[in-house]
Each structure stands twice: as structure tokens, then as C-alpha cells.
Design brief:
9 helices, 26% strand, elongated, 19 strands, Alpha-Beta Plaits, 385 residues
């Protein structure tokens, strides 16, 4: 029976420069590894106008319930300035007990740890009562249009049942074992355009300065007290991320002003309830300043919370046994693909320490990688006992 070593497999995966949404063969490489273990696999490519096609993988071994699924992504963010790296980001190196390379932390090493754990489990339990599956995307770091969201729709159409899903994102702030994610805040981005009337700065009465209006609107947005947070979630926050007047002349009142903002909201709100609240502000202040506004919204995901169940507590106990740290349940951080998977299955997130993700010299501790492999193996053994 084939058994994969987690460190060797992680190094092999890191060698692929799979910057979103470029696959460069990494999905087929992983598919071949899983086929060796007996998994039935399908690479699913999704396309959509104005977005590059993305390859995804769904693999499964076993035909019975319960179906325990591991979800992750093989795409990575760009390495940035190569001169700032001490190694080639796509030629993984081991230094001082750490594996260095783009994706070492987020999240190729986690995938390697689970595949290795699955290979050991299948060697120990050839006839286990259930199924193990992997849902792997190449579109988590990008627009997330042709990735997990569409795989979930695909699984729904096929009436594929997933009983529990473990998302292997790097959830721990500083030490392996600190944190399990059981939910995430929602994310809403707004692009606001204010149309005024262009004119000469010496004759403001002949113009209508949109920058004045947009500053007033942004000030009001920043002063909104959405909530004080909940037992499970931190408070909702709004941050202005871009302001663009696009005016190169000092003596011209611009005719257009734009601003972009992002809101991370908890489960006291929905994206629709926030939109309604903001639209009232836009209408009120644009009317007061005799300007016209246009707003474009993009919702990356709604806030969600998975109430801990027996599997959640079992995983928490295993993590504590191996790391000697009892992980706390958390909803902090950005969005993840769990926001899509929660539509079809209860899920949680647990992976490596995220201190170096997206950074130069992204790295994972070899000790942590070995312990994560043990954690994932023990989860499978306990789940299918």
C-alpha cells in the first residue's frame, strides 16, 4: 500500500508556481497521487465570461456515509519581489527546521499533511465504514468565481452528501493548536461614484464639486456604529480602501469622484440589510449636495457560524492531546471557502500557523507539519472508529 510522506509531498506541491488562477499541472499531479490510494477523482474546470478558467478537483474513496471531506486550495498568491526572498519561492528549501516556499504555509503543506494522513489511515483500515473525500480548488486566493462556490453547486446537482468538512486553512496565530475557526464574518465591498459638475475653481457657483459630497458621505459611513460584536463575533467594521478624484489640474473642479470601501460584518446583519442602510445615506447626502450617485456592491460572502457538535469537540480534544494546547473556537480573520461549503455541510477550519502566509520567505515548521499530519490521522481514526 502506498504511503506518502507529508514533507516530501509538500515540497513537490510547492514546486508548481500555481499563482491564481494558473494551474500549471498541480491539480493533475495531486490527482495522480490520490488515484494511487484508490480515490475516484474528477477534475472539474469552470469558466465564466471575463474570468480565467479554473481547475478544481473532487476525489472520493468509499461509497457509504458518513462522508468526511477535507477542503483546501492549491493556488497561491504571487511571490512579489524575488530579490527579497532568501530562496527561490518555487524551489522549496529546508532551513533551521522550516520548509520555505510560496504555499508552504497557505496551504500546500496542509493538503500534503491530510493526503499523507489519508494514506496511512487507508493502510491501517482498508475496509472502513464510510467515505473520505477531498475538495480542492485553484481559485481561493483570487476572485473565487470558478472555484469552491461552483464545486458546491456541482455537488448539489449530483446530490453528493458531505457529513462533515474540515477546511485546512492556516488558522493558528502563533502556535499550532491555538485556534479552530467555526465561522467567519461576511464581506461586502462597495464602489461609490459621485457625479458633480466640472468647472473653474474661481467660479464654484458654476460647478458642483463631487469631492465635497464624497468626503461627507465617507465621514458619515465611518461614524456608523453597526454593533458592539456578539459572543461569537467581533464588531462589524467599515474601512475606506480607495479614494480617486482623477484630476491632474489644480485649477479645475472635478466632475467625478470615486471611493471604495469594505465592510466585514457579523451575523447581526446580512449584506442586504447593510446595503439598505447605506443606500439611505447615499440618497440623503447626494440630494442635499445636488449630486448624483452610483453604487456597485460585491458580496464575497455572508457571515456564518457553525454551532459546535460532537465532531467539533472530538477534533478539539485530539488537537489538545497532540499539541498540549486546548484550541479556542473563533470567527476572526478574513473570508475562506468555508463560506460556500457551509451550505452543504457543517464545517470547521484547522491548519497550520499563519504568521508567514503571503509574506516573503513563507515557511512552515517541520515539527508543526508532522504534528498536523498526526492530528489529521487521529481525526480520521476517531471519526471512523
Amino acid at each position: 500500500m502506498t504511503i506518502f510522506n507529508e514533507i516530501k509531498l509538500a515540497k513537490e506541491l510547492i514546486k508548481f508556481p500555481s499563482v491564481t488562477p494558473n494551474d500549471v499541472g498541480v491539480m493533475s499531479f495531486l490527482e495522480k497521487k490520490l488515484k494511487k490510494l484508490g480515490f475516484k477523482t474528477k477534475i472539474i474546470e469552470f469558466k465564466e465570461k471575463n474570468f480565467k478558467p479554473v481547475k478544481n478537483l473532487y476525489a472520493k474513496i468509499g461509497n457509504k456515509n458518513p462522508n468526511f471531506c477535507y477542503a483546501g486550495h492549491l493556488d497561491v498568491v504571487p511571490p512579489g519581489n524575488l530579490n527579497h526572498w532568501t530562496v527561490n519561492p518555487f524551489k522549496p528549501s529546508i532551513k533551521k527546521g522550516h520548509l520555505i516556499g510560496r504555499g508552504a504555509n497557505d496551504m500546500k503543506s496542509s493538503i500534503a499533511a491530510f493526503v499523507s494522513a489519508a494514506s496511512i489511515f487507508l493502510n491501517k483500515k482498508k475496509d472502513f465504514n464510510g467515505s473520505i473525500s477531498l475538495l480542492i480548488t485553484g481559485d481561493e486566493e483570487g476572485d473565487a468565481i470558478n472555484g469552491t462556490k461552483k464545486v458546491v453547486d456541482y455537488l448539489k446537482r449530483r446530490k453528493e452528501k458531505i457529513n462533515f468538512c474540515l477546511v485546512g486553512e492556516p488558522t493558528n496565530p502563533n502556535k499550532l493548536g491555538e485556534m479552530i475557526k467555526i465561522g467567519r464574518r461576511g464581506s461586502l465591498t462597495g464602489k461609490l461614484i459621485i457625479n458633480g459638475i466640472q468647472g473653474h475653481v474661481a467660479y464654484p457657483q458654476r460647478a458642483n464639486n463631487p469631492s465635497t459630497t464624497i468626503v461627507k458621505i465617507l465621514n458619515e459611513l465611518k461614524n456608523i456604529k453597526f454593533d458592539k460584536g456578539t459572543k461569537d463575533f467581533q464588531p462589524t467594521n467599515l474601512e475606506v480602501t480607495k479614494i480617486n478624484i482623477n484630476n491632474n489640474a489644480d485649477n479645475v473642479i472635478p466632475g467625478l469622484a470615486e471611493a471604495t470601501f469594505n465592510i466585514r460584518f457579523n451575523n447581526k446583519h446580512s449584506s442586504n440589510s447593510i446595503k439598505k442602510r447605506l443606500n439611505k445615506i447615499f440618497k440623503k447626502l447626494s440630494k442635499k449636495n445636488k449630486s448624483k450617485f452610483k453604487i456597485e456592491y460585491r458580496v464575497s460572502g455572508e457571515a456564518f457560524l457553525t454551532k459546535p457538535n460532537s465532531t467539533t469537540f472530538m477534533i478539539q480534544k485530539i488537537i489538545k492531546e497532540i499539541t498540549k494546547i486546548k484550541p479556542k473556537f473563533s470567527t476572526t480573520g478574513g473570508t475562506s471557502d468555508a463560506r460556500f461549503i457551509k451550505q452543504i455541510s457543517p464545517c470547521l477550519e484547522f491548519g497550520l500557523v499563519g504568521k508567514t502566509m503571503h509574506k516573503v520567505d513563507e515557511a512552515v515548521s517541520l515539527k508543526d507539519l508532522k504534528n498536523l499530519n498526526k492530528i489529521y490521522l487521529n481525526i480520521l481514526l476517531k471519526y471512523f472508529k
